[in-house]
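Task 17 of the worksheet. Students: predict the tertiary structure of the chain below and write it out as structure tokens. Keep your answer in the requested format; marks are given for formatting as well as content.
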Amino acid sequence: MLEVGRAFSRRGTGGLLDRSSAPHRVPHRTTEERVAAITALRKMRLTGADIALAMGMPASTVSGVLMRIGLGKLSRLEPIEPANRYERARRAS
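Model answer:
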């Protein structure tokens, strides 16, 4: 309760609201150049482990980048196939 009292005395009623726990900045985030290189290697259909080995990075970092850019699965590289529909010469009864 002491923490709640401090938050109220420092920030008023706004101090009692829930706040995000996300960091304000991430100083060691993967650079955009490395993200672009990971993307290019993924588009060559390399696995996350192969990309990590080629770039000398931890596999967990490569996996996190791939998930963040939406290429976590190799199937994301291919267009979505249309549904398989059948046509008949006349209407079924």
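Marker's comment: The chain has a mean pLDDT of 86. Residues 18 and 24 are 16 Å apart (CA to CA).
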